Amino acid sequence: MKSQGVLWVLLGLLLWLEPRTASLPLVMDFIIQALTELEQKILVTQVNGTASAWILSAQDSSLHNPLHRHLLLKTENHKATELGPHPLSPEIQDLISEVAQHDVRDGQEYGVVLAPDGSTVAVQPLLVGLEAGLQGHRVVDLPLNCLATPCDAGDDLPDVGAIWPGLRNASPDASIPDVGATLPNGKTKASTIVERLLAITLAGDLSLPFFHSPQTRSPPGLGTEGCWDQLSAPRVFTLLNPKASRLTMAFLNGALDGALLADHLNQIHKPHPPLSHLLRQYYGAGVAGDPEFRSNFRRRNGASVTSALTLAQQVWGALVLLQKLELGHPQLKNMSQEQLAQVATYASKEFTEAFLGCPPIHPRCRWGAAPYRGRPTPLRLPLGFLYVHHTYVPSLPCTTFALCEADMRSMQRFHQDTRGWNDIGYSFVVGSDGYVYEGRGWHWVGAHTLRHNSRGFGVAFVGNYTGTLPSEAALLTVRDLLPSCGIRAGLLRPDYKLLGHRQLVHSDCPGNALFSLLSTWPHFTATEN
Ligand SMILES: *[C@@H]1O[C@H](CO)[C@@H](O)[C@H](O)[C@H]1NC(C)=O
Ligand SMILES: *[C@@H]1O[C@H](CO)[C@@H](O)[C@H](O)[C@H]1NC(C)=O
Ligand SMILES: *[C@@H]1O[C@H](CO)[C@@H](O)[C@H](O)[C@H]1NC(C)=O
What we know:
The protein is an alpha/beta fold. The chain has 16 helices and 14 strands.
């Protein structure tokens, strides 16, 4: 209850504060500090869940999303303001009021912070996820016979069990179902259920932008990245695609973090740990000492607990519920169940393949790249080759964002100043921190494999792999994720060939240990052509 109260305060602060220009950098550490301050205050004053009143007493206008109102606020009915209107130190308060609403406007994104792993995270879906996790599972049954008219969506139903954690046991099913066969069409099922944790964190928001460009391709900028004005004290986040929908990379990160942490909170025994503690671990070394359970590996963790099929059902359910809750919804009002199911399936497939199924790639601006010197040459895509390198120097794998970004800059300096190249040579560089770092990227000719630079992408592992191997996560990225993502996007040929640098140029690269492993990979080819 105490942790829950903290969140309500955070979400509710918006209503009490005139947004002012905050001066603190927009970084996750200050969100964690805000939680710490609130948790101390709640501990000292011994109030119980009173912070929820902050939101409720303000005519629930703080959460514009009807799904949030329906699934999150309904149970809370306290009336108290015992913490006073200003429980936070003023500068933290300003920061919170600035970031608590997520928005995309005029090519800029608001309500996002820079996390220690270098990812950008939307705060609101993260907090909403935490709140849902503290409240626990609740499923809303949607009997199909009530779909035609407004009807109460099953508030009194018993909790029929855990849907989202239950997926851990389900076999991962990446294949995309035929809508009619798996989503309710009157033949297969008489009802469907909406699970609160997923509906609130992901499912409710995921599909709406797809109504603008249904069935043809992703809405503009699904997973759009952006650049901070400065990395040391970030304040302004400008999107790389000015036409991006709300489903930006930061939003997807925040929603997925919210969903994963909700799932975690829901599973552990009470009392819940302080949220500040949980977030510090999740955006640090890992929750409860588990280095796999942290923001660096959010996609892999997300992919292991859900599938496109399950997600499609939840998205569909959330759309149906939203249609009930908001009768005049501009995008949903005249939609049939089948149309909603189609959009839900498509959105879930896009999310699963283009987000969960791709490695996270830090754009150039994130590691502080110097500009390209001169004019880059475009590649003629798709390419048919992937050339694997190790960096040799730096010889140690980089295991944190701070180390990897510094390595990227030092390699770029070496390539530009000492070698006299236009830019860092590699197309992509793979750290041992769970991230890929964009070098020349998918579209521009690199300088990695002499005489072959226009034919293939050059991908380098940071480190010296003469005697040892890169981390499992890094290997998986180069063996599976990066190529399948490139193939899906039409940048790499499905029958691409993978070679080690040494097969084309007189060199030991990518190291004996790594090369002998490469030679067992499916796309490895022993000959040059
Ligand atoms: C606060 O919560 C505790 C335990 O959850 C309960 O025993 C106590 O009565 C509550 N106090 C108030 C004022 O509601
Ligand atoms: C949409 O629904 C409204 C009533 O809800 C109806 O008047 C209108 O004709 C419908 N439009 C279409 C294109 O079906
Ligand atoms: C790379 O590793 C090999 C084998 O472990 C070692 O002999 C060599 O000195 C290392 N090179 C650098 C630059 O660290």
